[in-house]
TrEMBL record:
Residues in Neurotransmitter-gated ion-channel ligand-binding domain copies: 43-247
Domain Neurotransmitter-gated ion-channel transmembrane stretches: 255-426
Assigned protein family: Belongs to the ligand-gated ion channel (TC 1.A.9) family. Gamma-aminobutyric acid receptor (TC 1.A.9.5) subfamily.
Signal peptide: 1-27
GO cellular component: chloride channel complex; postsynaptic membrane
Protein name: Gamma-aminobutyric acid receptor subunit beta
Protein keywords: Cell membrane, Chloride, Chloride channel, Disulfide bond, Glycoprotein, Ion channel, Ion transport, Ligand-gated ion channel, Membrane, Postsynaptic cell membrane, Receptor, Signal, Synapse, Transmembrane, Transmembrane helix, Transport
Membrane-spanning parts: 248-272, 279-298, 313-337
Positions with biased composition (Low complexity): 414-425
The species this protein was found in: Macrostomum lignano
Gene3D superfamilies noted in UniProt: Neurotransmitter-gated ion-channel ligand-binding domain, Neurotransmitter-gated ion-channel transmembrane domain
Localization, UniProt: Postsynaptic cell membrane
PROSITE patterns, per the entry: NEUROTR_ION_CHANNEL
């Protein structure tokens, strides 16, 4: 056998020699553990064997003090419509029950038990006064625990999610600050039996600085203790108040900025021609409907409250600006076309009464042919078009009345207007040599030797012939339809009469009156004289 192997053999055999000595130690440790478990189990059975969980600790002797501690896990949601918020938190309650003291010499010695043990001992009837709906988490086991100390101190903790009522003041919405509370109190024990207090004051609340919310910012929190007097007695209430400030960034991009742009867009109509009715009306209606949609979206996320909010004032003012831009166009359109219609109607009345008709032997005359164009423009107006039929009827009646009056004064007017030229003009050719041209009854035309009168009335302009030519009314429709024409003596052939005849027909068609080719205004045949 080698010398090295011979030296290592005693070292390999040493653990085998010590193994019988270690077995009693391991067995003693396991026995001690079993003994402790058995002792604690025996103590728990002994404690609960004669324990009445219907009676509070210190019953009939002194008031029981209960300490509260809250750990905020998260703020889940805040609803303005329902006036509530949802929060997940840990609630720990501290009190002392001498009936459960199992080792007074080791007061700090504790044992943690499952939530099932809570059903065997007395626990406070704590509830949340402003609770709407709550549930205890049970994944993977029910989130409850009981920690029992040797001197009888108990910690009872649980994790739950609760929806709490929060009466919000929305006068300054969305630039508002809300105060939401958690109100904890005993349901059945008045202050003569149980008093509650925050454990370690402000330090009783933990986790608030880690809370993150998309809509609000938690500025700070505070705790308070009040006494509530009810018909069944006075109860102590612990309040935890959260001060929440609303984040305005969401409303800037969803409400304020779009509404500002819509108002500015409505002002674009001021630079659009007022005669572009379709463009301005479409722009105004679109902006009004868009503002209505924005207002509806904002109100859908708010409760139906009666008082006025800051966002309501802002949206109403934006709607007023948009609506005023649309109303401005309506006023401009009515003022423009209405005033223009009144002026043109007055001109037509003056023309029908003969106030603007003047005779002139020198061949000059006053042109009122623009009345036909003005009447045509009035017919194109969306406002005056509703009354143009009545206006035409009035004008037709005035023309008929004026026609009867002019027939009686026709001969006298023609003689007085041209006394000298009547003597200088040669005798007209025989009636058989001059062709007869029928004329509209709305054209007051007088044919006298050497006399030329311009006709004015019913929106028709007058035209005169040159010296020695034929004087007569050539119907003109406005400044944009016919120009003032002078027919000289040498140009009034057959073609000249045809053109004049066509102008008369066009004028009669624009005014809307019938073309009567069977008679003249004077009741005689209208003849043209040639030089």
């Amino acid at each position: 056998m080698p010398s090295g192997l011979a030296a290592a053999s005693p070292l390999l055999l040493l653990p085998l020699l010590l193994l019988p000595l270690l077995s009693p130690v391991r067995a003693q440790t396991q026995a001690d553990d079993n003994s402790n478990s058995a002792r604690l189990s025996s103590a728990i059975r002994r404690l609960t064997q004669n324990y009445d969980n219907r009676l509070r600790p210190n019953f009939g002797t002194k008031v029981l003090d209960i300490g509260m501690e809250v750990v905020i896990a998260s703020f889940d949601s805040i609803s303005e419509v329902n006036m509530d918020y949802t929060i997940t938190m840990y609630l720990n309650q501290y009190w002392t029950d001498n009936r459960l003291a199992f080792d007074i010499r080791n007061a700090n010695k504790s044992m943690t038990l499952t939530g099932e043990f809570a059903s065997k001992i007395w626990v406070p009837d704590t509830f949340i006064a402003n609770d709407k709906h709550s549930f205890l988490h049970d994944v993977t086991e029910q989130n409850k625990m009981v920690r029992l100390y040797g001197d009888g101190r108990i910690i009872y903790g649980m994790r739950f999610t609760t929806t709490l009522a929060c009466m919000m003041d929305l006068h300054y919405y969305p630039l508002d600050v809300q105060n939401c509370t958690v109100e904890i109190e005993s349901y059945g024990y008045p202050t003569e039996d149980v008093t509650m207090q925050w454990k370690n004051g402000q330090s009783a609340v933990d986790g608030a600085d880690r809370v993150k919310m998309p809509q609000f910012t938690l500025e700070h929190f505070e705790v308070s203790t009040t006494t509530i007097s009810l018909s069944t007695g006075s109860y102590q209430r612990l309040s935890l108040i959260f001060r929440l400030r609303r984040n305005v960034g969401f409303f800037v991009f969803q409400t304020y900025l779009p509404s500002i742009l819509i108002v500015m867009l409505s002002w674009v109509s001021f630079w659009i021609n007022h005669e572009a009715t379709s463009a301005r009306v479409a722009l105004g209606i679109t902006t009004v409907l868009t503002m209505t949609t924005i207002s509806t979206g904002v109100r859908s996320s708010l409760p139906r409250i009666s008082y006025v909010k800051a966002i309501d004032i802002y949206l109403v003012m934006c709607f007023v600006f948009v609506f005023a831009a649309l109303l401005e166009y309506a006023m401009v359109n009515y003022t423009y076309w209405g005033a223009r219609a009144k002026r043109k109607a007055k001109r037509l009345r003056d023309a029908s009464s003969g106030n603007n008709t003047r005779g002139n032997c020198s061949g000059d005359f006053i042109d009122n042919s623009h009345s036909g164009v003005d009447l045509n423009n009035q017919r194109m107006s969306p406002i005056i078009g509703l009354r143009i039929r009545r206006l035409n009827q009035q004008l037709h009646q005035q023309q008929q009345q004026q026609q009867s009056e002019d027939e009686s004064r026709e001969e006298e007017t023609s003689i007085q207007s041209c006394p000298q030229q009547q003597q200088q003009q040669p005798e007209p050719p025989p009636p058989s040599s001059v062709p007869v041209y029928p004329m509209s009854p709305h054209v007051p035309y007088i044919s006298r030797p050497g006399c030329y009168l311009g006709a004015s009335g019913s929106g028709l302009g007058g035209s005169s012939g040159g010296s020695g030519g034929v004087g007569g009314g050539i119907a003109g429709v406005g400044r944009s339809y016919l120009r003032q024409r002078r027919v000289t003596a040498g140009s009034l052939g057959g073609g000249g009469f045809d053109r004049r005849h066509q102008h008369q027909r066009a004028a009669a068609a624009v005014i809307g009156s019938s073309y009567d080719s069977g008679r003249c205004r004077s009741g005689r045949e209208c003849r043209a004289s040639r030089m």
